[in-house]
Specification:
Modified residues (N6-(pyridoxal phosphate)lysine): 180
Helix content: 25-40%
Number of strands: 13
Pfam family, one: DegT_DnrJ_EryC1
Strand order of the largest sheet: 1-9-8-5-4-2-3
Protein name: UDP-4-amino-4, 6-dideoxy-N-acetyl-beta-L-altrosamine transaminase
CATH topology of the largest domain: Aspartate Aminotransferase, domain 2
Strand content: 5-15%
Keywords: Aminotransferase, Pyridoxal phosphate, Transferase
Number of domains: 2
Active site: 180 (proton acceptor)
Radius of gyration: 21 Å
CATH class of the largest domain: Alpha Beta
Number of helices: 13
Largest sheet: 7 strands, mixed
Order of helices and strands: HHEHEHEHEHEEEEEHHHEEEHHHEH
């Protein structure tokens, strides 16, 4: 089965991990520090806090933002559930706003229609790798005293109006899962320019531990002393994972170029297929394409999905609208809330896209898809 996404691991990656395994550090060591500095620099941010997953990164970001009971977090339903559940773990109420009909990204106009005095965070998701319109979302958030979180699980390496993803929102989260644009096997990161947000994020991801003596309630204890001013979790990334991430980060530009070439070939080869709607690219976006999402028209999505898989081509649907899941239905969320997102879901299929995908393999995907559609 040809997968819809997979990692690219080479000898340099293996050597980087082996170096850590034969060192004195497996965790809380220099590779984590170096990886965080490198990720912050790549994202154009002052601080980066690495962690165990993209889901953990979202949980950390909402903690840093001070999200809690009584607060509302506005986000998109066209995402993986963690974008919403990370806020709910802190007791917040999630408000879903609809997406732009063409890009799959959170629609700023829909956000503006649902903001309230309880809005604490507006969380956009860079669907497929194309950045959300963060300038517009930030203007809405900051007008009402809220913060922005950019879920950039799909978009490390992308730019928005020439600015790197990581430098736009108050807090940005990355995912380094194997199917993403680069990997640490499992891992994630939170980026911010705000010193106070960085301190809160760092403390939350180290079980709440503070080692800043200037903030201690009992500052006269010995050098062993530390304090826990608020409860956190152990979300630390290990040096083993960080070493793989450092090696992968050095190849990110090559990964981006390859994904761009695959995207362009799909766009050209499928442009004349009337049964498909192809991705739209905003003029100010330079995406690192994590997904190639096509829309299958005429109610044929399930047929096409199943026939592609029968032909040995791994495809996926990204995503089921978050509030369709039973846990959200049980809280009173109902279908029909975000019609653009629901129509997008009914038509979307993600075709195989990853740096190691050969053009011959891509041609097989294209040929099989055209044959199924009779194009």
């Amino acid at each position: 089965m040809l997968p819809y996404g997979r990692q690219w691991i080479d000898e340099a990656d293996v050597a980087a991990v082996a170096e850590v395994l034969t060192s004195d550090w497996l965790t809380t060591g220099p590779w984590v520090r170096d990886f965080e500095h490198a990720i912050a620099a790549r994202g154009g941010a002052k601080h980066a806090i690495s962690c165990t997953s993209g889901t953990a990164a979202l949980h950390i970001a909402y903690a840093a933002a001070g999200v809690g009971p009584g607060d509302e977090v506005i986000t998109t339903p066209m995402t993986y559930v963690a974008t919403a559940s990370g806020a709910m773990h802190h007791g917040a109420t999630v408000v879903f706003a609809d997406i732009e009909e063409d890009t799959g990204n959170l629609d700023p106009e829909a956000v503006d229609a649902v903001v309230s005095s309880r809005t604490k965070v507006i969380a956009g998701v860079d669907y497929a790798g194309q950045p959300v319109d963060m300038d517009r979302l930030s203007a809405i958030a900051h007008r009402i005293g809220a913060l922005t979180v950019e879920d950039a699980a799909h978009s490390i390496g992308s730019t928005y109006k020439g600015r790197p993803i990581g430098s736009l929102a108050d807090l940005t989260t990355y995912s380094f899962f194997p199917t993403k644009n680069m990997t640490t096997a499992e891992g994630g990161a939170v980026l911010t320019d705000d010193d106070a947000l960085a301190v809160r994020a760092n403390e939350f991801h180290t079980i709440g531990v503070s080692r800043d003596r200037s903030t201690y309630r009992h500052p006269d204890e010995g050098a062993w002393w530390y304090e826990v001013p608020a409860i956190g979790l152990n979300y630390r990334l290990s040096d083993v994972h960080a070493a793989l991430g450092l090696s992968q980060l050095g190849k990110l530009d090559d990964f981006k170029a390859r994904r761009a070439a695959l995207f362009a070939r799909y766009q050209e080869a499928l442009a004349d297929v009337d049964e498909l709607r192809l991705p739209t690219v905003r003029p100010w976006a330079d995406p690192t394409w994590h997904l190639y999402p096509v829309r299958v028209l005429g109610g044929r999505r399930r047929e096409v999905f199943e026939k592609l898989r029968e032909a040995g081509i791994g495809v996926q649907v990204n995503y089921i609208p978050v509030y369709w899941h039973p846990v959200f239905e049980d809280l009173g969320y109902r279908q029909g809330m975000c019609p653009n997102a629901e129509q997008f879901y009914r038509e979307e299929i993600s075709l195989p896209t990853f740096a190691a995908l050969s053009f011959a393999e891509q041609d097989r995907v294209i040929g099989t898809l055209r044959e199924i559609l009779g194009a």
